[in-house]
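Q: What residues go here?
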């Protein structure tokens, strides 16, 4: 985890946290995915470790959900993103309860509802499944009033909404469907009313392999079973493009930022003080665009 000051992004760059693990094993692999800052702490979702809480001042780490200690709570899959409620509740996504992080390409190509959205209450140590059977659950974002929560479904190319309060509490609906790319993290705008969605890759190219295979589940099944796992990513390929979209409070696409050369595989777009900060899975930098 690195940290930099927004006014001097280059000169202030520093390593904030070198190892996410709480196990004490220096050789344990870590892959910090979704991160949030709340109540003076940094929360991290790591598909190989679990959910970690880090004090921003002391850097003291606490494993909220540890894959290796909380064996009764873990599944085979992996956590991806999270958001923190005002009461301290942790809402988090699990990409797949069938495949592990190393088997992610198989999960994506199989395109079955193996993922889920959960709520963890630290005060009672209870985990509640909010939405089961999601298609590669990814980005998570609470609404401004915390009356609903959004979760992106990568292989369903949509954003799903789950109502937490009001007459629709406990129900789900589609917030935005048939997106132009595969949605990753979701982050609210500064005013909290709109939502930025990073797109890992676009769908609409001269030939989008995934869209071609989607209507043929048996073909996808055979590919997963017969092809070397290291080669599966080839079958999900599309034209690499940097793409982030802005959704209205009603789930309509009202704006987008695109790049065919500078940036690609966008996993998150986060709005801060008039800039849009963009991170990507296959890049080694952070970009920012003046809004």
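A:
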């Amino acid at each position: 985890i690195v940290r930099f000051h927004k006014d001097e992004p280059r000169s202030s760059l520093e390593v904030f946290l070198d190892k996410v693990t709480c196990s004490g094993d220096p050789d344990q692999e870590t892959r910090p995915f979704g991160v949030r800052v709340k109540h003076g702490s940094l929360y991290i979702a790591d598909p190989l470790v679990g959910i970690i809480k880090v004090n921003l001042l002391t850097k003291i780490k606490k494993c909220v959900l540890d894959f290796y200690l909380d064996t009764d709570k873990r599944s085979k899959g992996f956590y991806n993103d999270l958001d923190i409620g005002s009461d301290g509740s942790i809402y988090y996504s699990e990409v797949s309860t069938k495949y592990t992080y190393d088997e992610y390409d198989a999960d994506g190509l199989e395109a079955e509802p193996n993922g889920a959205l959960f709520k963890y209450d630290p005060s009672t140590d209870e985990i509640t499944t909010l939405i089961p059977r999601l298609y590669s659950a990814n980005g998570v974002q609470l609404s401004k009033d915390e009356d609903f929560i959004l979760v992106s479904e990568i292989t369903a190319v949509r954003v799903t909404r789950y109502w937490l309060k009001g007459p629709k509490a406990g129900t789900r609906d589609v917030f935005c469907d048939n997106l132009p790319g595969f949605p990753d993290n979701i982050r609210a705008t500064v005013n909290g009313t709109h939502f930025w969605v990073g797109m890992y890759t676009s769908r609409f190219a001269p030939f989008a392999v995934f869209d071609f295979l989607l209507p043929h589940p048996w073909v996808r099944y055979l590919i997963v079973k017969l092809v070397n796992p290291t080669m599966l990513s080839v079958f999900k390929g599309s034209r690499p493009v940097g793409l982030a979209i802005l959704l209205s409070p009603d789930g309509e696409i009202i704006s987008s930022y695109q790049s065919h050369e500078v940036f690609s595989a966008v996993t998150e777009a986060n709005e801060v003080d008039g800039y849009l900060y963009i991170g990507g899975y296959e890049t080694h930098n952070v970009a920012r665009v003046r809004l």
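A: Context that may help when evaluating the design: The first helix runs from residue 104 to 110. The chain has a mean pLDDT of 85.
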